[in-house]
Prior knowledge:
The chain is α+β, with helices and mostly antiparallel strands. It has a single domain (3-161), classed as Gcn5-related N-acetyltransferase (GNAT) (Aminopeptidase, 3-Layer(aba) Sandwich), CATH 3.40.630.30. It has helices at 24-34, 41-49, 95-109, 124-132; strands at residues 3-6, 13-18, 53-60, 66-75, 78-86, 114-120, 136-147, 150-161. Strands 1-2-3-4-5-6-8-7 form an eight-stranded mixed β-sheet, sandwiched between helices. The protein starts with a strand and ends with a strand.
Amino acid sequence: MMRTFSFFGSKTSVLLLALDGEHAAACARIHRESFAHPWSGADFESMLSARETISDGLMDSRDHSLQGMILTRVIGTEGEILTVALTKSARYKGNGALLIEHHLSRLTATGVQRLFLEVAYDNTPAVKLYLKQGFVEVGRRSGYYGSGGGPAADAIVMARDL
């Protein structure tokens, strides 16, 4: 399930593909680069091999290195995005939107009708991206994200119908 995309006439292209347990270490590396409390390779291996997980990756078409990932747990007709992360070099280039749009298409094809996610209220780039993708705030979780010694950040709970 690999598709190639080119951006705005540039020669740079990425591959979008379904992830599996073999991608666990690369997912953990990206998660470590993106979050204060990263998940381990074993965590990713478990999630990627779980029946209820649908996951997609964004790969550099030149060196085939994983540049981003999104994992969703699906139960019935609802899904919860567990994580979305991109390498620092892949950010602010439209890759996040591309990855999410591809993932939403896959989720729709499997029968998911409503999708949820949580995001730190102060993660402005992510909040803006999710709003552009049609998610709306449906709640908050006070002090949900620990910050390694500082005050905990609230989580915005967002949802979108597919």
